[in-house]
Amino acid sequence: MSECLDLFRLDDLISAEDQALRGQIRHWVQTRFVPQINRCWNAGTFPLELLPELAELEVFGGNIQGYGCAGWSALRYGLALQELERGDTGLRTFVSVQGSLAMTAIRLFGSEEQKQHWLPEMSRARKLGCFGLTEPQHGSNPGGMETRAVKTPDGYELTGSKMWIGAGILADVAVVWAKVHGEPGVDPESPAAVRGFLVERGTPGFTASVIDGKYSLRIGITCRLEFNQCTVPHSALLPASSGLKSPLQCLNHARYGIAWGALGAAQACFEEARDYALQRIQFGKPLAAFQLVQRKLAQMATEISNAQLLAWRLAQLKDSGQATFVQISMAKRNNVAMALQVARTAREILGGVGILDEHVSFRHMCNLESVYTYEGTDDMHLLILGEHLTGIAAFA
Q1: How does DSSP classify residue 196?
Q2: Are residues 188 and 97 part of one domain?
Q3: Do 188 and 137 share a domain, yes or no?
Q4: Quick one: 136 and 52 in the same domain?
C-alpha cells in the first residue's frame, strides 16, 4: 500500500504472506488486465481469455474451504478483491458472482454430490455460474419474488424471470431462487417458500440475454434470465436451502467483498488525483500547492483510512465467526459511498482531462454508481442499520 494511504500503519497488522498475495494480484491486474480495459470498456465485453490466469491466482471461491478452493481467511480474500476492483469493478464483480454468490450457494446449501460436481470445476473457471435472485419488479424486495417452482412427479417446473444477473449468458449453471408450490404446510407466496435450484445452460425453457445500453459496469456481462415452463429434476434442488434467509446469506458474503472492493477503486482514484495534482502546473505552481486541492486530498485520504480500518475490523470479526449482517451492511454502504465521493472528487481535480479514457477516475465513478445500487441500495442499508438501532422496521 502506498505510504500516503497507510497513515495508520495498517500494513503492520497484515502478514507478509497476505501482503505478498496482494502484491501478486495487483501486479497481475496492472500488467495483464489494465492494458485491455479501454478496449473492453468501449466494446462492452469481458476479457474471457484471462479466466485461466485468474483461476491460477485462486480468486474464484478463494474464501471457500475444500473442493479445490484456496480456503483463504476473510482478510486475504478482502485484499484480493480490493486489488481486482483497483483495476475495474467489472473484474471484481465477475469474481464475486462466481465465488461469493454462485459457489457459496452451492457450498452452503448443496448436496455433497452437487458440491463435488461443481465447486472444483468452478474454482478453476472451467465452469461458470450466476446467481438469479433479483427480479424486474422486485429489486429491493426479494420477498415479493414471483418466480415459481411447481413441484411435479418428475421434479420442478420453473416459471418467471430474473434481472441484473452477472454472467448470465456465460454461466454453465444458474443458481435460481424461486417460491415452491406444492410443499405441504408451506404458503407458496411466503418468503419461507423460497428454495434454490441449479439450472444448467441448455435446459429447455431457460434463456439468458444481455442487457445493453449501460453507462456503468460496461465490462460486466449483465443479463436477464427467463424461465418458461423450465423443467428440472429433483436433483436440481439445493436441499439445504430454506426460505429467503438462504439467498440473503450469500448476499452477506458478497457484500463483505464489495466493502473491500470499493477500497480498491477509491485508492486508484486518489493516487491518480494526487499524482496529477503534483505534476500539473497552473498559475506557475503545481495544483497540489493550492489550499483547496490539498483540502480535497486530505479529505479523500481521511475517508479512505476510515474505510480501511472498518474493513479490516470486519475481516477480524468474519474470521472469528462473529460478523453480523448489520456490520456487513454498514461496511458495504459506507465504503461504497466513500469510494463514489472519492471518484467524483478525483475527477474534479483532474479537470477537463478527467473525462478521457487515459485516466481511471471517471470509469470508476461510473462503475460505482452501479455498486451504490446493487446488493442493497444505499437507502436499504441505512434502513437495515436503522432497524437495528431502533428496533423498528421501516422498509414499507
Answers
A1: E
A2: no
A3: yes
A4: no
Grid cell of 345 as nine digits: 472528487
Residue 4's pLDDT band, with cuts at 50, 70 and 90, is: confident
Q: How much is the pTM?
A: 0.95
d(CA 173, CA 170): 9
Q: Name the percent of the chain lying above pLDDT 90.
A: 93
Domains held by the chain: number:
3
Does a structural domain hold residue 84?
yes
189 has catalytic annotation:
no
Residue 354 DSSP code: G
> Is 396 inside any structural domain?
no
| HEC readout, 309-342 | HHHHHHHHHHHCCCCCHHHHHHHHHHHHHHHHHH
Average pLDDT of the chain is 96
Q: Provide the phi-psi class of 182: left if phi over 0, else alpha when psi is between -120 and 50, else beta.
A: left
Question: The domain containing residue 31 runs over which residues?
Answer: 3-123
Cα–Cα distance measured from residue 120 to residue 146, given in angstroms and rounded to the nearest whole number = 32
- Judge if 173 and 236 occupy the same domain: yes
The answer to whether 160 touches 178, Cβ cutoff 8 Å, is: yes
Beta carbons of 157 and 212 less than 8 angstroms apart: no
pLDDT tens-digit series, residues 265-304: 999 999 999 999 999 999 999 999 999 999 999 999 999 9
Q: Is the model's pLDDT at 182 over the cut of 90? A: no
Among residues 49, 358, 375, 387, the one annotated as catalytic is: 375
**Among candidates 133, 159, 135, which has minimal Cα distance to 148?**
159
Domain end call among 242, 264, 279: 242
Give Cα 168 to chain centroid, integer Å: 15
